Octanoyltransferase (Gimesia panareensis), 248 residues
Amino acid sequence: MNFPPPATGFPERQNRTLKVYLLGCVDFDSLLVLQERALREIDCQQDDQAVLFVCEHPPIVTVGREGSHYQLSGSYHDLKAGQIEVRWTNRGGGALLHAPGQLAVYPLLPLKQLGIGISEFRKRLQQATLSTATELGVESETCPDDSGILSRCGQFAFLGAAIKSWISYYGLYINVSPDMKLQRLIDANRYDHRVTSLSATLTREASMGSVRESIIRHLARQFGYQDPHIFTRHPLLNRVKKKVYVDT
């Protein structure tokens, strides 16, 4: 990957390191274990080292701090029939359905060492996503409540970050080319934005590899990291494949 110089406002630091793990499809519980481990390591180091997990998940619903049972009320039967579990989490945002074709991005960043607050962290996540959409030829804008990113066809990206000891975790979900029948099982937002994907907006298949490369590059730029170290495996990784069928 070719990575540009750090974004304006961050001095170049030789010891500033971003480890990027491209995990493929990994179950949600394993991802939580990876996050907790990375959180502890970053907290102990007390420097500006950071970790970025990039993956997809087998079908599962997660509900953030702003979520409610109402978002799931019309789909309990379908979720149960499809053996799709529901998890309540500590991230921001509401209910989201994760599935292959949706890119899950988890930046674990030492915000205190980087000198940025929560609001600025969210803005930089959004800007990285907007820049990725622009590269793909998708016109986009932020949602009114800053919960994600909209295209002309609806909302294709969702923010769901959390902060612990001034270290970010959870993060960002981008619908690249998921099964939209699954995505529409739940009410994913509070503004009645239609849930869509980059592929639906482009009216052609969006490349997961291209979106993944672009969002990594723009996140690295937004948070001032050069030459991220890319890994394609993790010792705690649990790869799974799971198919879910929904009656139409």
User: Anything to note?
Assistant: The first strand starts at residue 18 and ends at 25. The first helix runs from residue 28 to 45. Helices lie at 28-45, 76-81, 111-114, 118-136, 180-183, 198-202, 208-222.
